Amino acid sequence: MRLSTRGAVRHCVESGLAISEFVGSPSRVIPIQGAPLQKPYQPIGLDHVVTRDAALPATRVDDDLVILNIATGRYIGLDDIGRHIWDMIEAPMRVGDICEALAQQYRGDADAIAADAKTFLEELAGEGIIRVDG
Amino acid sequence: MSHLYIAHGLVVSMPFACPELAVAGPGAEFDVLVCEGPVPKALDGAALREETHEASAVAYLQRGGPRGAAFLVEDGKRILFERGSHCDEDLLRHLLLYPAMAALLRQRGLLVLHASGVVSPNGVVLICGDSGAGKSTTAAALTRLGWPLQTDDVSALRVDAADAIEVFAGARHAHLFEAASAALDLDTQGLVPNAWHRMKLAVPALIEDDRPARRVRRIVQLERTAGRTLQVEHVTGHVKLPLLLHSVYGPYLPEEIVARAGLIARALQSVEMIRIGRPDGDWTMDAVLASITAD
Question: Are A50 and A121 in contact (CB under 8 A)?
Fold first, then answer.
């Protein structure tokens, strides 16, 4: 997730790579039976309240954050802006407030940042690693 | 009669002599028992069933052909084997010391990598890569520079008391193609090809007299590329995770990977990772070694 030339928050979840693509090395792949790799995105609006799943193992690696998702057998890599949002939603937070904080911090186009931030949160919701209320 | 050996920090009781391993000191008590007996055809409660092997959280079953053996590895403590009808003893030991031992190390909570390691002055350098990438050859070449071999092909990692990643001492031989041995000017007179990789030789390598677990400093991923020049990339950030998982000596169940999240996290944070792409078909060992040893 990086600032685009418009000053907006750009695409966010780097991964979606399946742990199962790797853990069979050197000779095989292990599918996780019955677990979909990704759910459809849930449309998220400014009045939704989001909270991260605190139980997921998350690791800081240089400027990035790596999250292992046992439920889907996938890992998710977040860059510094994604990590910033992840930090913000340790406690429940309204999406509109997240967008406002990002617009202030990164001084970009507020509408573009809000659109990108909502897309980012929808991807996290699709990965099943945040809770969406409201 | 049983024989006691040291492998990957464990005392292993074997029912036969195993010249590939170091003999345990007098009075040692075994951690792992290797014994012969009937191996079941299937594993109860397996989460993974494949043609050649099955796995659950506590057991691993490997089926063998007539020249090899079948293995049942249980609880990180016992390896039961059953010889095939035309069992090749060299192949039996190879299967025992590599895939069966790797399964046992997984069951003991370690992160096992398909990697060869050498001891640099600043810590162990692990060489990873797909089959044929040149892991063992590169490790052997590094021993020629005076960096002792720590492990070949199976590398078992854990977090030490100071929260650093360390790797146990494993094999004392590097398994090399004859052409690679010749290119490295290694003496292979009298050596017999490895039974598993028929074209390879088990070449005795430079090792330390005392072989404790040693801290891992760097992981090098070797890749063959279509380019004409050597490509060296220092890997940082979340991209380190797929590099690390690509070299896992599986099969691990996904929940076993997550159960090692702390160990993986420390590896990502504390171990340097480098990807080296070398031109396919060219002997670029000098340049590879220069990249690995550069500091």
Answer: yes
- The reply to whether ipTM tops 0.90 is no
Amino acid at the residue B81? F
Q: Note whether B254 contacts A15, CB cutoff 8 Å.
A: no
For residue B107 the two structure tokens come to: 């069951």
The verdict on residue A2 lying in a domain is no
Report the predicted TM-score, pTM, of the whole model to 2 decimal places.
0.84
CATH number, domain containing residue A54: 3.90.930.60
Task: Using CA coordinates, name the residue in chain A closest to B115.
Answer: A26
Look at residue A86 and tell me if it is in a domain.
yes
The residue of B62, B136, B238 whose CB has the most chain A CBs within 10 angstroms, and thus the best one to mutate to test that interface, is B238
What order do you get walking across the sheet with B53-55 strand by strand? B22-23, B3-7, B10-14, B32-36, B78-83, B69-74, B59-62, B53-55, B48-49
Using a CB-CB cut-off of 8 Å, the residues of chain B touching A62 are 236-237
Q: Which residue of A has its CA nearest to B266?
A: A59
Which residue of chain A comes nearest to B131, CA vs CA?
A26
Cα of A21 to nearest chain B Cα, Å:
8
Closest CA to A64 of A55, A76, A46: A76
Judge: B241–A23 Cβ closer than 8 Å, yes or no: no
Interacting residues of A50 by C-beta distance below 8 A, sequence separation 6+: A44, A89, A92, A93, A95, A98, A121, A124, A125, A130, A131, A132, A133
The total number of structural domains that make up chain A: 1
CA distance B167 to B239: 22
Under 8 Å between Cβ of B156 and B167: yes
* Partner residue opposite A57 with nearest CB, options B242, B249, B258: B258
> In chain A, what residues touch B154 (CB-CB under 8 Å)?
none
Expressed as residue numbers, the domain containing A21 is 9-133
Structural domain contains residue A1: no
One digit per residue, the tens of pLDDT, for chain B of length 295 reads: 899 999 999 999 999 999 889 999 888 999 999 999 999 999 998 988 888 899 998 999 999 889 899 999 999 999 999 999 999 998 899 899 999 999 999 999 999 999 999 999 999 999 999 877 888 889 888 988 999 999 988 999 999 999 999 999 998 877 766 666 676 676 667 666 666 565 566 777 788 888 899 999 999 999 988 888 899 999 998 888 888 988 888 888 877 877 888 899 999 999 999 999 988 777 688 889 999 998 7
**For residue A123, is it within any domain?**
yes
- Determine, for residues B237 and A62 on separate chains, whether the beta-carbon distance falls below 8 Å: yes
Q: Is B255 on the interface with A (CB under 8 A)?
A: yes
